[in-house]
Amino acid sequence: MASRMPTDDPEGVAADAEALARMARGDESGLAALYDRHATPVYSLALRIVRRPEDAEDVTQQVFT
What is the DSSP code (8-state) at residue 1? Predict the structure, then answer.
């Protein structure tokens, strides 16, 4: 089974672009939208790499900081 790339979802790409535009205008809701959309896969990947939930949480926070 082939993995899906983020660019396979044009609506998601557009939503991310809008969220980034809001962040550029200083609107914190943009970051919240990106976090809501991407935090789970970021955390899952981090957990597979570091193998400790506490460390994976730290990595996820650093990614979005």
Answer: -
Closest Cα to residue 30, out of 40, 41, 15, 43?
Answer: 15
Confidence band for 8, pLDDT divided at 50, 70 and 90: confident
- Residue 43 pLDDT > 90, yes or no? yes
- For 62, half-sphere exposure in the C-beta direction (CA atoms, 13 angstrom radius) is 7
| 32 vs 23: CA distance, rounded Å | 9
What is the token pair recorded at 38? 């991407």
Q: Which two tokens stand for residue 27?
A: 């609107």
Answer for the pair 6, 12: CB distance below 8 angstroms, yes or no: yes
pTM of the model: 0.80
